[in-house]
Write a structure and sequence with these properties.
Blueprint (H helix, E strand, L loop, with lengths): L2 H14 L3 H16 L8 H8 L4 H23 L5 H19 L2 H5 L5 H13 L5 H19 L1
Length: about 150
């Protein structure tokens, strides 16, 4: 799943559960649950296996997703202001909701493709339930919309 739905769900969890000791573990757990929902992802792994690196198009797509994710996280956190503690918990939950994907970065960006990082990437890939682009993107937009609905 893209980062944006993970951030939206993580932020929504922290909005409803401002205790970081509960919200952050739930945000991490939500990542693995969301990956089990049929979705579409750029094919970073396939590109890396085939070409030794991720394509420029995938990098641009990923950077766009990161920008959208940051906007979502900061927007939702800003709604908690002036309660800076709650806003910080929302931002932390947003970050921890994507941490399982960030943990794969050395594999794709630093060419570290063996040992524990390889095992983790293989594990995380085994959780993915991918579908075609139109269906997968629609599902992810619905997850984001449902997160905003839950917050309101």
């Amino acid at each position: 799943m893209l980062e944006s739905p993970h951030v939206a769900v993580g932020a929504a969890i922290a909005t409803k559960i401002p205790n970081p000791l509960i919200a952050i573990p739930l945000a991490i757990g939500s990542h693995f649950i969301l990956d089990r929902i049929p979705h579409w992802n750029p094919h970073s792994y396939t590109e890396t296996q085939k070409n030794g690196r991720v394509s420029k198009n995938t990098i641009v797509f990923a950077l766009t997703d990161v920008a959208v994710s940051l906007a979502i996280g900061f927007y939702i956190a800003s709604r908690a202001l002036p309660d800076y503690r709650h806003a910080a918990v929302i931002l932390a939950a947003s970050f921890f909701a994507v941490l399982p994907d960030l943990a794969k970065s050395p594999y794709f960006l630093l060419n570290q493709r063996k040992g524990l990082i390889k095992k983790y990437v293989d594990f995380e890939r085994s959780l993915q339930v991918e579908t075609k682009f139109a269906v997968g993107m629609t599902v992810q937009l619905l997850v984001i919309a449902a997160s905003f609905w839950w917050i309101s």
